[in-house]
Write a structure and sequence with these properties.
The protein is of the alpha/beta class and about 270 residues long. The protein has a single domain, classed as Vaccinia Virus protein VP39 (Rossmann fold, 3-Layer(aba) Sandwich). It contains 9 helices and 10 strands. Strands 1, 2, 3, 4, 5, 6, 7, 8, 9 and 10 form a 10-stranded mixed β-sheet that branches.
Length: about 270
């Protein structure tokens, strides 16, 4: 209860500060960003731009957008990656982003309304990050179908999505990734993965939650989820996907490309 009040107060403060921050950005010649409160919804405000740059650099380094005509951005939030994809997609390319957070999707629709290549979908499913859930509604996650046809996506990006899913939801999202992905094309997934018994895991993610999951906060389990590596890779395989490349993240204290593991998946 106290946590909910504090989060509501933080959001209210960021709403108040957002217009001034937008004016300051405009005056200094920096590009337009979502308002502060929407950026905070997807993580640290200070990391909004840098995280997108790092992801874009990674996609370029592995040349994952070569000949890509349809990009599916799973959990796109307030569109951190949209400008990067806009610059890289061909004139007849297509970007589809979806998220459970309706306010973020509405902002994206207004911001990029002039580009017919871009579309944004609200996933009205039972997620604690969606308004329908807070009102006691929302369709079951397992009934949700990613908003692209079978085998049409040249790249599926799921950045900081599996860090907020339960095991059942994660299995469904992996199966939908497999369904959406064009054969021979990649999916990029990030997650907190750990080896059983690795040092520091029980400190950072102290609560076991079954199915190889550990969570940071028992009261808000999907706020931060870590997966035992072997269990997560077994789910990947069960979905009909295979691991093609892996950049290890936090555990057990090794050098890392980012804080999360990055997995390159394919059929």
């Amino acid at each position: 209860m106290i946590g909910e009040v504090l989060r509501a107060a933080r959001t209210a403060a960021l709403r108040v500060a957002s217009p001034l921050e937008a004016v300051l950005r405009l005056a200094s010649g920096r590009r337009r960003l979502p308002p502060l409160w929407l950026r905070r919804h997807t993580g640290s405000v200070s990391a909004f731009e840098s995280a997108a740059r790092e992801t874009a650099a990674f996609l370029d380094r592995l040349d994952l957008l070569k000949d890509a005509r349809l990009v599916l951005d799973v959990g796109c939030g307030a569109g951190a990656m949209v400008e990067d994809f806009r610059r890289r997609l061909p004139a007849d390319g297509r970007y589809v982003g979806f998220d459970v957070h309706a306010a973020s999707i509405r902002w994206c629709r207004r911001r990029w309304a002039a580009d017919p290549r871009l579309s944004f979908e609200i996933a009205a499913i039972a997620s604690p990050y969606g308004a329908t859930f807070r009102r006691g509604g929302g369709a079951p996650v397992e009934s949700y179908r990613f908003p692209v046809d079978d085998g049409t996506a040249d790249l599926v990006l799921a950045k900081s999505v599996f860090t907020h899913l339960t095991a059942g939801d994660a299995r469904h999202y992996l199966a939908e990734t497999r369904r959406a992905l064009r054969p021979g094309r990649p999916a990029v997934v990030t997650a907190f993965l750990y080896e059983a018994g690795a040092p520091g895991v029980e400190t950072l993610f102290p609560h076991p939650a079954g199915d190889g999951m550990r969570v940071k906060w028992r009261a808000r389990p999907t706020a931060a989820v870590a997966w035992e590596k072997a269990r997560f890779l077994a789910m990947v395989e069960a979905a009909g996907l295979r691991l093609q490349w892996h950049s290890e993240g936090y555990y057990p204290g090794r050098d890392r490309l980012t804080a999360q593991d990055i997995l390159l998946l394919g059929h």
